[in-house]
Design goal:
The structure holds two protein chains of two kinds. By secondary structure, chain A is of the alpha+beta class. Chain A has two domains: 233 residues, no CATH class; 135 residues, no CATH class. Chain A is built from 14 helices and 16 strands. In chain A, the strands form four sheets. An eight-stranded mixed β-sheet of chain A has the order 3-2-8-9-10-11-1-12, sandwiched between helices. In chain A, strands 7-6-14-13 form a four-stranded antiparallel β-sheet, with no helix packed on it. Chain B is α/β, with parallel strands linked by helices. Chain B folds into two domains: 87 residues, Elongation Factor Tu (Ef-tu), domain 3 (Beta Barrel); 165 residues, Rossmann fold (3-Layer(aba) Sandwich). In chain B, 18% of the residues lie in helices and 33% in strands. In chain B, the strands form three sheets. Chain B has a seven-stranded antiparallel β-sheet. In chain B, a hairpin with a 3-residue loop joins strand 3 and strand 4. The longest helix of chain B is centred in the last third of the chain and has 13 residues. Chain B is globular and about 50 Å long. Classes of the chains: A alpha+beta, B alpha/beta. The interface between A and B is large, with 51 and 41 residues. Chain A: This is 4Fe-4S dicluster domain-containing protein. Chain A: It comes from Streptomyces nondiastaticus. Chain A: InterPro entries: 4Fe4S_Fe-S-bd (IPR017896), 4Fe4S_Fe_S_CS (IPR017900). Chain A: It holds the Pfam family Fer4_22. Chain A: Keywords: Iron, Iron-sulfur, Metal-binding.
Chain lengths: 392, 267
């Protein structure tokens, strides 16, 4: 949130924007010096990119998802936000894949001076944050700036970011935000929340502010008071979305399930399919792991420290002088899944999964996190049944 | 400073063994907060990289590190000349927390380079006579030539300081065998003992098993663990051991917490 003040009641600011109002919203944000990032169609995908105008939004585009499958497709209704997660997430902007952290110079007598990177990031406005992705941002907040060591790069980018959540009315076949309790309705943490409504009464957005800055911006836009029909349709569409999830997680304590299945046979099964390519970790909106790179110029007296994304699927990820701790694909997939659904709780007091489905879509062999969780649950039930029968 | 290294001047670099050296560092200007025994620093060799290194000695703002040259950065740090500068971040991680063992017998078990983080612990115990019970120091090394701090070892154990090696030539008249065998010579009341162990993980597990067998409770066995580490600030994800981020929740971990994690292969 751009402002730390308590959100006013949603009813105070609820109003309706039409497509011109959306155009005015982007203009207003840009006039305030914001760099507006939102969805747009590029390279046969709906990507997140800098928007010059609201006309770049993917009006009339949707997506088809399945495990290992993603296609954009035309929508007859002209909706801009009737699509679920694309290949990127907001971490590309808040936790960039490659950043310089500091530079050092060595003088003639060997003296070292170190200069921290002065990151002066744009003042972001994120337009079209899905509720699951809002939770993902909040999860990365805990990791990057919620502990004793505050990451300066993330903090500078996150601190000024203005978040416009668009509630989800069109979940995809790989979505399971209901299982992870992150959507499809907007939860607190936004500056503005929108719900897109397309019906016989027209194409419009129910808008309400979550912060003072959000209310201020809404007040500057051409808008009309929220009418009962729009409010009702918006609520019904979001409620209907909750019933249209393409995937579900087993309804068990996932943290306990993962803690109790470290020796499961299922890990061998998934390891036989997993390519350990790391796509799931790159697409995941909460995966935060990085490595460091140290470089020098040709004189050897100027050095820089860079940080870039890395994946726990990389063999070198656990390198020690005696070899890698997690050498097998089995152990690396197990690390990712147990961390995401289980040990994330121990480390950061929340789940690491928001149910966005990206890891399922962008897995080249279509490994499905929900299917793996169900299989582990089934194996744990079978094990318990065996115990009750007196079998080992 | 935990994100950006502070310049430290190398005041000494002396050999410990064929591949291991001890370097002494003094802050050039600003000093890091005082380290506690068991904590570690990220030590940066200019242009090469930084690695986690436990403190082998703490004297005000001066730091001692014992480093085995096994990779690009550790070899570069072994090669630093007195008068040059390195970068240091820290302090990071959990310490041995010796004061919480006041009044209890102490057993310190070290294997190889694992003696380095235990050295300031031994010194802390020796500097407070009467505060702790009996001090037993058990040191293992691959060969006599690999023994660290040879000139200091004699004064370390009250009543017992044992040294053993895996392999030795005819000139060696001391113990040969695993370090856990020295426990038979140690003097301690297992129910009133706190143990500290660092070394190869297989040694740590063996030491813990023997200590448990002799009646030392798991929560009174503290071990120091090693994993790959890049940031030391809980952001890079490399040092995970199940639920633990070892840069934050370790490196010193009580064995009751570590045991279930160390028995899972490739965790």
């Amino acid at each position: 949130m751009a402002s730390a003040t308590a959100p006013p009641a949603a009813g105070d600011t609820a109003c309706v924007l039409d497509r011109d109002g959306m155009g005015a919203l982007v203009r207003e944000l840009r006039a305030r010096g914001r760099t507006v990032i939102g969805p747009t169609v590029r390279d046969d995908a709906i990507v997140l990119a800098k928007l010059e105008s609201a006309e770049e939004l993917p009006y009339g585009w949707g997506v088809e998802h399945e495990a290992g499958y993603y296609r954009v497709r035309r929508r007859p209704d002209g909706a801009a936000f009737a699509h679920s997660a694309g290949p990127q997430s907001w971490k590309s902007f808040l936790h960039p894949e490659r950043v310089r952290q500091w530079a050092a110079d060595r003088g003639p007598d060997g003296e070292m001076t170190v200069r921290p990177e002065r990151d002066e990031p744009p003042s972001f406005a994120f337009l079209g944050v899905r509720p699951c992705d809002l939770r993902a941002i909040q999860i990365q907040d805990r990791v990057m700036i919620g502990g004793p060591h505050r990451d300066a790069t993330y903090g500078a980018r996150r601190g000024g970011a203005f978040l416009i959540v668009v509630e989800c009315t069109e979940p995809g076949a790989t979505c399971f935000c209901v299982s992870m309790d992150t959507g499809p309705a907007a939860r607190p943490g936004y500056d503005l929340a929108l719900t897109e409504v397309v019906d016989e009464a027209g194409h419009r957005f129910l808008a309400r502010a979550g912060t003072d800055e959000g209310a201020e911006i809404l007040a500057a836009l051409p808008r009309r008071p929220a009418d009962d029909l729009t409010r009702t349709r918006a609520r019904e569409d979001v409620e209907a979305a909750a019933g249209r999830m393409g995937r579900t997680m087993p309804e068990v304590d996932l943290r306990a399930l993962l803690a109790g299945t470290l020796d499961a046979e299922r890990w061998n099964d998934v390891a036989a399919r997993c390519l350990t390519c790391g796509n799931c970790t790159m697409a995941c909106p909460t995966c935060f792991c990085t490595t460091t790179e140290d470089v020098t110029d040709l004189t050897g007296d100027h050095a820089e420290r860079w940080r870039r994304w890395e994946s726990c699927y990389d063999l070198d990820f656990t390198h020690l002088p005696g070899g890698s701790v997690r050498g097998s694909g089995r152990s690396r997939y197990r690390q990712w899944l147990t961390h995401k659904l289980g040990t994330w709780w121990d480390q950061f007091d929340s789940s690491g999964c928001v149910g966005c489905g990206r890891c399922i879509v962008w897995c080249p062999v279509g490994i499905d996190i929900t299917e793996e969780a169900h299989a582990l649950h089934q194996e744990s039930l079978d094990g318990q049944a065996g115990t009750e029968d007196g079998r080992p | 400073m935990t994100a950006v290294p502070l310049p430290y001047r190398v005041t000494a670099n002396r050999p410990e063994s064929a591949d291991t050296r001890t370097i002494e560092l003094q802050p050039v200007a600003e000093a890091l907060p005082v380290f506690a025994p068991g904590q570690f620093a990220m030590v940066y060799a200019f242009g090469v990289g930084d690695i986690p290194v436990s403190v082998a000695g703490i004297d005000g703002s001066a730091l001692t590190h014992t480093i085995r040259g096994v990779g690009a950065t550790s070899r570069a740090l072994c090669a630093v000349r007195a008068g040059t500068q390195v970068g240091v971040r820290g302090p990071f991680g959990t310490g041995w927390d010796l004061p919480s063992a006041a009044g209890r017998d102490l057993i310190i078990v070290a294997g190889g380079i694992g003696l380095a983080p235990l050295r300031p612990l031994v010194r802390e115990a020796l500097s407070a006579p009467g505060t702790y019970g009996r001090l037993n120091v058990l040191v293992g090394a691959r060969t006599p030539a690999d023994l660290l701090y040879r000139s200091e070892l004699d004064g370390w154990g009250h009543p017992y300081c044992g040294v053993t090696v895996d392999r030795a030539g005819p000139e060696w008249t001391g113990n040969v065998g695993v370090v856990t065998a020295l426990l038979d010579q140690a003097a301690f009341d297992p129910h009133d003992t706190t143990a500290f162990a660092c070394g190869p993980e297989v040694m740590i597990r063996a030491a813990a098993r023997e200590l448990l067998h002799r009646g030392v409770p798991a929560q009174h066995i503290r071990i120091s663990l090693e994993r790959n580490m890049h940031c030391a600030t809980g952001h890079c994800g490399h040092c995970q051991l199940g639920p633990l981020l070892l840069c934050r929740d370790g490196p010193v971990v009580a064995y009751d917490r570590a045991k279930p994690l160390l028995t899972v292969r490739e965790l």
